[in-house]
Each structure stands twice: as C-alpha cells, then as structure tokens.
Amino acid sequence: MLSASQTAINGHLGVLLGSAIKSAFVNFSMGTLILAVIVLVLHPHLTYAATKPVHRWWMWLGGFIGALYVLGNAYLAPTIGTGLAVVIVLVGLMTGSLLVDEFGWLGSRRNLVGWVQVAGLVVMIAGVALIRLV
After folding, report:
1. Average pLDDT over every residue of 27-47
2. DSSP code of 49?
3. pLDDT above 70 coverage of the chain, percent
4. Residue 9: what pLDDT?
5. Are 77 and 5 in contact (CB under 8 A)?
6. Cβ–Cβ contacts within 10 Å for residue 53, how many?
7. How far is CA 16 from CA 2, 13, 36, 102, 108, in A?
8. Residue 49: which pLDDT band, with cuts at 50, 70 and 90?
9. pLDDT at 96 exceeding the cut of 80
10. How many CB atoms lie within 10 A of CB 10?
11. 131 with 87: CB under 8 angstroms?
C-alpha cells in the first residue's frame, strides 16, 4: 500500500512542480533526511572505519536504481494513472526477481524457476493488457 501511495504522491507532486525529476528529487531529499536522523538515533557512534567496504562495484547501483524507480513512477502516475503504473512496476518486479532467482545474479542464491512461476508471470502480463485495453 505504501508503494502505491508513494506513486500517487510523487505523481501529483510532479504535476504541481511541473517536473517528474523535481518530484523524485524531493522524494529522495526527504528520504535521505529521515534516514540520516534514524541512523544518528540508532547508531550515534557510527564512523567510516566501522563500516565494511563494498566488495562489488554493482552494490553501489541500488541508489541509482531506486532513483530511476521513483522518477519513473512520478512520470507514469499522472500519465497512465497510479493503478496501471503500480501494476506495470509489479510485472517488472516479478520478471526481474525471476531472472535473479533463475541465474543467481547479484550475489543471490540460485533458485530455479519452474513453469508455474512463468505461467503466473504470463497471467500478470495478460492482466496488465486487460487493464490497459478495457
């Protein structure tokens, strides 16, 4: 529910600001501020030396991917509607998660994908098509 709410809020904010990029910027600025407060409260003595080094280059991509996700939602919600934007994102999430599971990408444990999962994804895609066409 929070993800759908975030999509609607960011979409509306993007319309008010006249820019999906500005909406995404506000979203990440507020998120950064809130996370900074949470970290300072829960880990007041956190220092750089206490953090573990990142061993894989792709571990830095999470923020980049998150920014694209929020920007895409802020752009799509006013264009195609919150409901369809969330459903499209859900299909993308399911497709991506099945690929990560099947091939064990990004340091994940490999979980073979069966025909039932693929059939479920096909049903979801058919549902998106029905929502869009009806």
Report:
1. 89
2. G
3. 93
4. 94
5. no
6. 4
7. 21, 5, 27, 42, 40
8. low
9. yes
10. 26
11. yes
CA distances to 7, 87, 117 from 133, in Å: 22, 14, 24
pLDDT of residue 121: 92
Contact 20, 74 (CB under 8 A): yes
Total count of residues recorded for the chain: 134
Q: H or E segment at 104?
A: none
Q: Give the 3-state DSSP-derived string for 7-35, with helices as H, strands as E and coil as C.
A: HHHHHHHHHHHCCHHHHHHHHHHHHHHHH
Task: Give the whole-angstrom CA distance, residue 107 versus residue 44.
Answer: 30
Distance, CA of 46 to CA of 58 (rounded, Å): 24
- What one-character DSSP code corresponds to residue 48? G
Report d(CA 63, CA 29) in Å as an integer: 12
Task: Tell me what pLDDT residue 52 has.
Answer: 65
Q: Mean of the per-residue pLDDT values for the chain?
A: 89
DSSP state of 108: P
Which residue bears the tokens 């869009």? 132
